[in-house]
Structures are given as C-alpha cells and as structure tokens.
Amino acid sequence: MTRDDLVKFYEAYYRPNNATLIVVGDVNSKTLLPQLEKAFAGWQAGGTPVPATPVPAEYVGKPGVYIVDKPGAAQSSVSIGQVGIARNNPDYYAVQVMNSILGGGSSGRLFMNLREDKGYTYGAYSSFSFRRGAGPFSASAEIQTGSTKEAVVEFMKELNGIRGANPVTEADLERQKQSLIRRYPAGFETVGQISGQLSNLVVYGLPDSYFNEYIPKVNSVTLADVNRVANKYLTPDKMAIVIVGDRKAIEDKLKELGYGITILDADGNKLAE
Domains along the chain? Predict the structure, then answer.
C-alpha cells in the first residue's frame, strides 16, 4: 500500500456529498449552521463513489478445532463461530432475542452453564456482529486450561440445545424479551450514545421510525420465531472452534472429541493438522 493509494481513497470517499454530520448536545441550529458552513467552506464536493455491494459471506474454512499455541498460558481463550447475518436481515429482532437466551448476558444459557454450574470461567457469552454485510457469530469465553475440553463440550451442548435439544420455553422467551426492552433506554443516556444511535440509521439505512418500532418488534417475537432462527443461523456441526492456549496441555484431551485439529500460528497460518 502506497501513499498514493491513501490519497486516492481519501479523495474518492471523504467528500461532503458522501458524508453525514450528526450533532447532539446543547446547540442551536441557527447559530451552529453558520459556524459549520464557515469551518467546512473549503471542503469541496467530488464524484459520488458507487457504494460497494457487500459480497455474500461464505464460510471457506472447514469445521473443527483450530489451536494457536501459547506455551504456559494459564487459560484457554475459546471462540466458536461461523458466518452470521447482515444488519438489514428481516430476522434481526428474532435473532437478537434468540441470542439473548443463548448467551447475551449473565442470564444466558452459556453463562449459567459454564460459570454458574461448572465454574470453568468468569463468563461465557455469544453475539452476532451486525454489519452491512454478514458479520460473524461467536460464542466465547476464557477457560481454565484444565477444563478446555469440557468447556467445548458444554458450548456445543448449548449451541445444539437452543436448536431444540433443550427447547426454549415461554418463560425463557418472555424473560429475555423484557431484558432487551428494559435495557434499551440506557443506550440513549449520553450525547455520545444518542449520536451513535443516529449514526446507525445512516450507516445501515434504517428508517426514521426505527427507534419507535424497536420495542414493539422485540415484543412481537414468538417462540416459533426463536426456534426458526436458531435452526437457520446456528449450525454447530459447521462451526470453527478456535482455541488460543497451551497446546501441550490441551491437545490430547481435545482429540477425544473427534474433531479434526489444525494448528495455526498467531497470524492464522496453518502449521500442522
């Protein structure tokens, strides 16, 4: 990458006709706008770049265990995942509720199992990273080295469980919907949070009515919706299980699980299988 590459990128994209300015705070538009016009007077419009169309993300690796060796590590960093969904997916709300049940917080199944029941970790969680294209889904935790294999077993148990092996109940559904709804106002407490929320409307092309629709749409998610999206977007038998830890201490036990094991360096390059 050269300096010219950076200059061309800047000139193509950093233009007033390709930007949105969001201001939140104790301001008056009548006095602010003239100041902004003066400050940005020299910022000239340019050609409008063609928006990049997100390429459908496909999982190009293969399922199994991937170990990054950190000799002497006191714990194993475990992350299990696959390609998730884009922010504009119509199943966004159902996926939010489903993930809240699975591992969205300290009342999620992963946390209650791996921390509260088994004591393998201080916390286990799952999340979907929503982007303009499909972002990753990940279930992760920092695990005591000696419990690495057992933790993987419990992760996979919960990932399969929410797909039907351990059915979600109406009580589970209602509790997590209310959790999402009651936490929602906390995302608007500061001027920074408000500007961030407004930025999401721009970045993801959300309607102006989005904030008013969020709670009703979360409330409308049904048990059938949760079961459907869990089976559609979570496929445990196709997930990569990435573990950063002491290879000598964890590899033999992990082999007992029957997964293929690939050894990677810290940059993700394959060292051995």
Answer: 3-39 (no CATH), 64-272 (3.30.830.10)
